[in-house]
Amino acid sequence: MKSDISIKWLGNLSKIKFDDxxxxxxxxxxxxxxxxxxxxxxxxxxxxxxxTEFCGLDALRADTVRDSFDPELLVSQAKDSKDGCFVIxxxx
Amino acid sequence: xxxxxxxxxxxxxxxxxxxxxxxxxxxxxxxxxxxDAYLYVNYDGAIKAAQSAQTIIDAKQSRPFTGIPIALxxxxxxxxxxxxxxxxxxxxxxxxxxxxxxxxxxxxxAVFLGKLNMDEFAMGASTKxxxxxxxxxxxxxxxxxxxxxxxxxxAVSVGLCAAALGSDTGGxxxxxxxxxxxxxxxxxxxxxxxxxxxxxxxxxxxxxxxxDTADDCAALLTATAGRDIYDQTTADKTFDLKKxxxxxxxxxxxxxxxxxxxxxxxxxxxxxxKAAEWFINAGxxxxxxxxxxxxxxxxxxxxxxxxxxxxxxxxxxxVRYGFxxxxxxxxxxxxxxxxxxxxxxxxxxxxxxxxYALCSxxxxxxxxxxIKLCGIIKSQYAEAFKKYDALLSPVAPTTAYPFDKLPDDPxxxxxxxxxxxxxxxxxxxxxxxxxxxDKDGMPIGLMITGKRFDDAAVLSAAGAYEKxxxxxxxxxKGVSEMKL
Amino acid sequence: MKYITVIGxxxxxxxxxxxxxxxxxxxxxxxxxxxxxxxxxxxMPGTLPVLNRKAVELAIAAGLSFxxxxxxxxxxxxxxxxxxxxxxxxxxxxxxxxxxxxGGLDVGGRFIRLTRIHLEEDAGKLVHxxxxxxxxxxxxxxxxxxxxxxxxxxxxxxxxxxxxxxxxTLVYAGVSDGKMEQGSLRVDANISIMPENASEYGTRxxxxxxxxxKFIKKAIDFEVERQAEVLNAGERVIQETRRYxxxxxxxxxxxSKEDAHDYRYFPDPDILPLIIKDGDIERISATLTEPPSKxxxxxxEYGLSGVDAEVILENKIIADFxxxxxxxxxxxxTAANCxxxxxxxxxxxxxxxxxLPISVSDFVKALALAEKSEISGNGLKTAIxxxxxxxxxxxxxxxxxxxxxxxxxxxxxxxxxxVLAENPKAVEQYKxxxxxxxxxxxxxxxxxxxxxxxxxxxQAELKKALDKN
Lengths: 92, 484, 469
What we know:
Chain A has three helices and three strands. By secondary structure, chain A is α+β, with helices and mostly antiparallel strands. Chain A has a domain of 36 residues. Chain A is flat and about 55 Å long. Chain B has a domain of 264 residues: Amidase signature (AS) domain (Amidase signature (AS) enzymes). An eleven-stranded mixed sheet of chain B has the order 1-3-2-4-6-5-10-11-9-7-8, sandwiched between helices. The N and C termini of chain B lie close together (9 Å).
């Protein structure tokens, strides 16, 4: 694994908090995984016909209003809600 | 128990929908303490659904799945049952909507017996990463059922449902089907709507059937396939097995060289070769075919699927749903703690790998490169399909292994997916059907892969083969074969 | 040390679609909190984006209005970051292949180039209260186009003028309602300064969310001065995001605890690449009304002054009305006079700014009556006022308010005599050579005659009466 990205930085980017043991274990796991991924760096890409699917404007959705959900139903699975709103602690 | 048989018995009034559902519920109560396939058994809901189904049957308006007891992998949203993806993150989550496939079956009056165990967020091939429990392989309770649809495969194998829906991202239907000795089909990407299937890797996920027979899988595919207004990646195609070119005679099959290498167990390759011989005797041509890029399929798959997963799982932060810890300092602290406590280790690994592959400075070498090489895989398949109607291979290099033999090293573990990932990368229909048993009696699967939207060819070839192959059902202590 | 100001703008405009960009929820302003939401726009598990055709078409319309090139194969990408107003923790936007590339606008004789226009989804709104934050996702998923300009602007005036022209062009194209006060048009400014003889641009700062012309100008002016002070003190300008505080009139650094952010852009696998055909572009082009720039050219050809043309073009409803009148045969200059005069006066005072209560045919007829001297110049103004306020056709208004010209000299001379008798001081002033008093008398006579006499007749008789005395 290229050394200039730290597991801690990557964890912060992915918003997962690791403790010290976790950082160590994840570093070891990533080392192993990236060795496998790095095997691709040696593969020569050859030319091929790109058969990627695409669609036209006619396949897109028409601009017709569909019924929205009841706000109480949408917030029903949230741990903290008030009057049909999602509540979270302050940002910073 | 074949769905067509159940349909007849229900319509001929040999058994009522409620009686049939009770039979399955009782069987679950008796057998599932051994296998642990179910996370949630829908006792009351199933009876109610059976009662409604009976009204439809009485009115002689049965649809194919009216009153048929089906079970669902726990990543399929159901508005009347929890949907947890076997994760602490979604413990207790009840979505306010059905997945499209669920709605389609519910609309036909299907009876949902419950939700089935899986690897957490569908990441894994053993069902061991489930937050709740380990599902056991019905053939040997000390061994894994495979994954990530391990619960689905085990349930079908023991007859704890008439059929099940699972999902396949890199082999998650086919490999557990092969480990549990049943049929599992991964449909062509775009055939079945993914709306309401909690996403792992959007360009690879497909919802598909696990059942006793190819016909049953075809029936489920017919009921679930089709364009969906909630999923713009679905194709304007319906599925009809009857319209397909049936059988094996005169067809050409390619046996994939790169998937029959030295990492494949002797028993497994022997069983696959025997199946190939059977195909030849049935009037088909079977030749070796080479798709060289398949040797690199595993890292290509892991880079693409992990990148998409890292992005797809970012929405799980405890804000609108899901696990939220008690004491937090502020928003960013809250979400980091939610995700640390809510996600298991394998999920975290994939997220880290995925984020890394997409980071600026690494994107070109990893994600972008993987996409390019995936394109080459697709074109090599396309080239092979110019000569062959379908391709054959093993489903996994080994049969089901004991729980304590799961490799610690992640790379080692990932490499076991070699047989199944490439068909997913190419969006092809691919099925697993039992073709043998190893020296310990563990099932071996034959994988049949077809052209895009040619699921019919795959299912009919499997159907022809399964009629001749004698299966050995699992022998669970105290659980007998289902009788109606 | 003299510095050159370099400004580039990113303008976000909400599109005039019925529904959000990736789901069928209503795209509307206001409403109960989370009242226009569904599992898709609140990022619930298992949901997928379903692209709105109209949103793409309006983005293309915007591009055509600015002379941009339309990308044949356009792609959608995920911009990944965590923030509570972003339901999926990624925004679906366009990085690699935006819908429109290039184009630009003439602003005061200088051509300001556009880099690109792309389609993306808006985020929800956060409301901060004591120790907690509440999230409203009504705005989440509303379609936005982001119009990115090259750093071609050289002053805050030019920047403000550019924004106004962009806003107007979008309104004319039916792409956005451009209501900055409602947040449907938002501006981020990228500002840097460089010494006069420098060959490279200086370090720029970004000021986000400027939502009025006044603040755009003030923020830019403050920031330019601040950067000059920094450079003059021998220090370096830090590349950062700043926000403008309306009360203090200053910009403040928004530097958060996060350092360099990595958005990990990648093509969204849930949205297929979109192929836009020539036929699509032609079809959309045909629906576009004539853009303000073309109309301006046409108005000046009619003989209107640049100022008058701008006044009429300020509001599309007025401009459309004017165009219809000219199409129906009205003389452009007379029509322009009335449109920018009495009609605009009534319109500016009216509550309903979305439609005019006068029909084109009635207006044109009123103009014709004035031309034929069947109503006077004042009578025309009165007629327009009453047609606007009462919504009645011209014939009814003329009848009810007695606007038909009455050339009965006895009535006119009697009214004149009365006015002169009531204003002896003014008569004295006129006798002493003050000819300006004439317009006072004209006004008084017009009022007395309730606009039913023609101006030239009144003037002639008035002069006769004054000279007689």
